[in-house]
Amino acid sequence: FVRTMNSPGAIAGYTFYPHVGQVFIEGPFNGEPATHTQSRKKVFECYPETLAEEDGCARKIISTLVTKAFRRPSKDTDVAAMMEFFHAGRKEGGSFDQGIEAVVQRVLADPEFIYRSEVEPASVTPGTPYRISDLELASRLSFFLWSSIPDEELIKLGAENKLHEPDVLRKQVDRMIADPRSEAFVENFTGQWLNVRGMKASEPVVDLFPDFDSTLRDAYRREIDLFFGSIIHEDRSILDLLTADYTFVNERLAKAYGIPDIYGSRFRRVKLGPEFDVRRGLLGKGALLTVTSDAARTSPVKRGKWFLETFFGVSPPSPPPNVNTNITPKPGEAPKTLRATMEAHHRNPNCAACHSIFEPMGFAMENFDAVGKWRTEEAGMPIDVTGMTSDGTPLDGIPSLRELVVGKSDLFAEVVAEKLLTYAIGRGLDYQDKPLVRSITRKAAKDDYRFSSLLMGVIDSPAFAMNMKSAASAGSTVSKAATTVSKE
Predict the structure, then answer these.
(1) Confidence at residue 5, expressed as pLDDT on a 0 to 100 scale
(2) Which of these, 157, 136, 160, 139, lies nearest to 148 by C-alpha position?
(3) How much of the chain exceeds pLDDT 70, in percent?
(4) Sign of the CA dihedral 345, 346, 349, 353?
(5) What is the pTM of this model?
(6) Strand partners, 478
């Protein structure tokens, strides 16, 4: 089904484009199971040619599977237990493949695969902190930086009890960041901290924003990943997240930003000249401007709160109960700017007191519409992006917001350190963690807040490298530091 340019409900003055409404894919019919796939290659590292070779090959496959699934070197007892399932599956299914299938099912049901357990040393007194084992450290590192299991090299170093050594640890972190698997860290961390994953749920009104589609949505997300990834892989200062004079675009995104002479679907790095100063850093990124808007309009409230939370770590108060937050224009009401509507809505002093904390930041972003497109007018009137923060700092558009954060760079760095630590240990921080966050930030300041300094500060911290024996310990406990990563 394709929506045509003469679609019902069209609004005069708006340009419409054909839109695909639904796509159905059926088949394949009478398909045959795949015999050569990447998944099979990862499991079947050998394949027996004779019946006599089956047990030897099965043991080799089991040893590798157990090592990867349990994130530690396999033991003879592991192999012996899994061989029983191989023989049972082989007998029941009649083939070597079905014997291995039974093993895979057994491995995937094992508690060591399902849970990341960390053994509490028997010699440690309850309530006493202790350093986790190197194998446990390998798992924490891999789930932190790869959102996946440790590889053979990490497991080997963990088994040899060498991973905790400072030089070895730093070398492994550098290797892991350089590995393509670190893209999972970029995607998941930015998805949580910047709420870029909210792009999937963002559905701007088609009648008002007909040029917004899934291609632009994907381009917005990819820009954030590439931009943040450049800070990590080039080991730049995290302050470049605010001021960097470059970004990554393809033809679709360049068109949305008004950047000329970019063709094709391939993303490439472009320098932002003075005419694109408003696109510098995170504040000019379309993805962030879209997720902080409503479907039909911008939201100075959402944007202002997001700004304070993202860059200063400040959570503004929620509205009091039973407060009318509806600012929908009344039927027949003359068009006016959102700012004029909001100011009329704030005649209640209780509303104005809280909104004055965050709304000036939101209004400073009003030159960007609800899908991140630049504009200078709204409802036929010039947009006013001026304002004043609660401490008396004047604001005048995006550049002034950027200067505001740069002027408090130590606070911004502390927020990034806090978000990194939260992501790494998989739990929210409380007041007891604040001294650690400040310590990580102060050390990174000596290195111009380079990303590697913050990252190693988190990895070397007691919160990441240590645990505390519970008062009622009984041998083993599930790690409280298991990284929580939401897959999209």
Answers:
(1) 41
(2) 139
(3) 86
(4) positive
(5) 0.84
(6) 117
Q: Note the pLDDT of residue 352.
A: 65
| Residues 220/255, Cβ–Cβ less than 8 Å | no
- Say yes or no to pLDDT of 13 above 80: no
- Maximum Cα–Cα distance across the chain: 87
Range 461-485 average pLDDT: 64
* Range of weakest confidence among 69-73, 199-203, 216-220: 199-203
C-alpha distances in Å from residue 367, one per residue of 65, 279, 289? 55, 12, 11
Residue 16 pLDDT level (bands cut at 50, 70, 90): low
To which residue do tokens 């509507």 refer? 341
- Which pLDDT does position 29 carry in this prediction? 84
Residue 98's region, left for phi above 0, alpha for psi from -120 to 50, else beta, is alpha
